[in-house]
Amino acid sequence: MKRREFITLLGGAAAAWPLAARAQQQSERVRHLAAMMGGRNADTDVEGRAWFTAFRQGLQELGWVEGRNLRADYRWPAGEPARMRVIAKDFVEAKPDVLFAGSTPGVLALLAETRTIPIVFTNLNDPVGTGAVASFARPGGNATGFTAFEYSLAGKWLEMLKEVAPAARRIALIFNPETAPYAHHYLTFIQAAAPVGVTANAVSVGSVAEMEAAVEGHARAAGGALVALPDGFIVNNRASLIALAARLRLPAIYSSRNYVVEGGLLSYGPATADLYRRSASYVDRVLKGEKPADLPVQQPTKYELVINLKTAKVLGLAVPPTLLARADEVIE
16 pLDDT exceeds 70? Predict the structure, then answer.
């Protein structure tokens, strides 16, 4: 090789190397995720830990390793809207690459603070009705993710509750209006599905004391039963509600497995851990440059029916074999 050619080749390589190095540094840049998780925490809340684990595993499977190319801040507001607002403000001030929220009020708290930082959500009820997105197919703003519940599930809750407790004819839908502003939609569906002789009413509570008083009042007349709506307040105070239902001998159906594992009668709803795992794919896509506005909101693909036979026996209820055959999990 001639000297001039060698110098030219060396110069070209020297010019190309910084470009390649910069590209590699760019791809390995540590990204910042700020996540407002559902559940009480990952230490004492078994189901919350399962959701957290599924989410982190989903990220790891996609190549996002905390401490290497991802810095993740996790907070648990425990279903308290005031804490969610504080966390949302702190997160937005930190200017992360992507925000994540695992509840309806959590998403709304983040959206109240920013309409520019990308947000991925899961467990969100009524994304369009709450104003989080313009439509499922074209979210249009800075948020997208996975919705948890369809309002039509209320009809299935009533149907299953009546199968286990055929004498139930007065159904109370328990919820907190601050954390479940969408409750009236469930009431509409459950009233439409109610057979002749069965009534359903919304019972709004704002504290554990109010919940106890309302449930005790509902139990004074015969034929009472409960539907616990998907609601951060109810989820995080579920021990009180489960104990109340047991003490007052009220059949109750819940929206997720964690209630039944802890002593509730039965539950039917989306597999929440699966939603968290799938949400990691949207965090991945946003971190790789896609915009929430272009990622359609997705619905659950897995549902689970869980029955606690021990609780049924305590309440003097016989679970029909047809319902047991449909159960994904039976706790004995």
Answer: no
Domains and CATH numbers, the chain: 30-149+271-302 (3.40.50.2300), 153-270+304-331 (3.40.50.2300)
pLDDT of residue 6: 45
Pairing state between β 266-270 and 31-36: unpaired
- What is the pTM (predicted TM-score) of this model? 0.83
- % of the chain beyond a pLDDT of 70: 91
Banded model confidence at residue 15, pLDDT cuts 50, 70, 90:
very low
